[in-house]
Design goal:
By secondary structure, this protein is of the alpha/beta class. It contains 11 helices and 14 strands. The longest helix is centred in the middle third of the chain and has 18 residues. Bound molecules: adenosine-5'-diphosphate and magnesium ion.
């Protein structure tokens, strides 16, 4: 099943999360800074999944870890329920916020204590946050297992005895244990077999419905993001280049980089032969980047202006924003330009 205008998203416009001009620069020399995130803006509504997609190294995980306060931002704000999460002071406010925001990583193995059984791992958060009494603990863990489909046998096992899919279910259960509102899912299925990927994605979607969760779902793979997302943000070298609801992003793709990403998804329909766009040209360095379009060196539509000015993210239709000087050009024209200007492989 794909997420569209499902019950979870319909009629909910209130932003749970607002990210405002978020930047994270890493110092990499005397005067050099690597611009891992460079002025990112987006919102996540209640009960919604925002997919964040882009190639490796474009800054997706940095967005996730800064939002989780695992590392400080260089500048910018993240608001949850209107509250600036970076200015939270005091231990009780901090703990309360930690309960509401959780993260799931690609492989939870490294964060699951190898010496503890699954039941003790799942009980840990309840003990730390004192959200139930000792007497209620067993029953609370049981309830969590029912919701996430963890069997009684699994509870007695150690992390190394589980396969990747089951370990990820434990990672998800642990993230859910404190009843969060928002979860960053950072490539949660990228290390799993395709058949297991579908199970985990379905579980996440099911839990979203049941628990009114909001997700930032990070992946380098647009075909994975497509299934779970209501809206999608495409990221390139530290910046969002296009953001729209899923249907619009696929039907009215405007940024050349998004077009290239879409063209790489294998199509099942053999009648519709698709030209796969193979990007040429150098990826510019994220260290002290010039204030120009960062995609210009690989773009088949680039004009002198692209090497002179950075295109800001601008709205081309309600809810659809694109950072391209030529965002107004029709998609067909862009696709034609793509097949003329680049090596195109026929996918059959
Ligand atoms: N701690 C760090 N110090 C220096 N550079 C970093 C650090 N963490 C990430 N980076 C750099 O920031 C950029 C974005 O990384 P990351 O967010 O991990 O990308 P993605 O998750 O999209 O693959 C990369 O160029 C990466 O090398
Ligand atoms: Mg990453």
């Amino acid at each position: 099943m794909e997420q569209g205008n499902t019950k979870a998203a319909a009629g909910r416009t209130e932003h749970l999360i607002e990210v405002k001009d978020l930047k994270k620069y890493f110092k990499v020399g005397d005067k050099s800074f690597l611009h891992a995130i460079d002025g990112v803006n987006f919102t996540v509504n209640r009960g919604e999944t925002l997919g964040l997609v882009g190639e490796s190294g474009c800054g997706k995980s940095t967005v996730g870890t800064v939002m989780m306060r695992l590392q400080p931002p260089t500048s910018g704000q993240v608001l949850m329920n209107g509250e600036d999460i970076f200015s939270v002071k005091g231990r009780s406010e901090d703990l309360a916020l930690r309960k509401r925001m959780q993260i799931i990583f690609q492989d939870p193995y490294s964060s699951l204590n190898p010496k503890k059984r699954i039941k003790d791992i799942l009980a840990e958060a309840y003990k730390i946050h004192k959200t139930c009494t000792r007497g209620q603990l067993e029953q609370t863990v049981e309830q969590l297992c029912q919701v996430t489909g963890i069997s009684t046998d699994m509870l007695l096992q150690y992390p190394h005895e589980l396969d990747g899919g089951k370990r990820q279910v434990v990672g998800i259960a642990r993230a859910l244990s404190l009843n969060p509102a928002f979860i960053v899912c950072d490539e949660p299925v990228s290390a799993l077999d395709v058949s297991v990927q579908a199970k985990i994605i379905n579980l996440l979607m099911d839990l979203q419905e049941k628990m009114d969760l909001s997700y930032l779902f990070i992946s380098h793979d647009l075909s994975v993001v497509k299934h779970i997302s209501h809206r999608i943000a495409v990221m390139y070298l530290g910046q969002i280049v296009e953001i729209a609801d899923k249907e619009t992003l696929f039907a009215d793709t405007r940024h050349p980089y998004s077009i290239a990403l879409l063209s790489a998804i294998p199509k099942v329909d053999v009648e519709r032969k698709v030209q796969r766009i193979v990007l040429k040209g150098d990826v510019p360095s994220p260290i002290n980047p010039k204030p120009v379009c960062r995609f210009a060196s690989r773009c088949w539509m680039s004009q002198p202006v692209c090497f002179e000015q950075a295109p800001g993210l601008r709205q081309v239709a309600p809810g659809h924003c694109v950072a391209c000087h030529f965002a107004g050009e029709s998609r067909e024209r862009m696709k034609t330009a793509a097949t003329v200007g680049l090596d195109a492989e026929k996918l059959e």
